[in-house]
Amino acid sequence: MIVFITGATSGIGKSTTEIFAKNGYDLIITGRREERLQALKTQLEKKFSVKVTTLNFDIRKQKEVEVAIASLSGENQNIDILVNNAGLAAGLSSLQDGNVDHWERMIDTNVKGLLYVSRIISNKMILNKKGHIINIGSIAGKEVYANGNVYCATKHAVDALTKGMRIDLLPHNIKVTGIHPGMVETEFSIVRFDGDEERAKKVYNGMQPLKPEDVAETIYWVACRPSHVNINDLIIMPSVQATATNVIRKSE
Ligand code: NDP
Ligand code: 8X3
Question: Does the beta carbon of 139 sit less than 6 angstroms from any atom of ligand 2?
Answer without folding.
Answer: yes
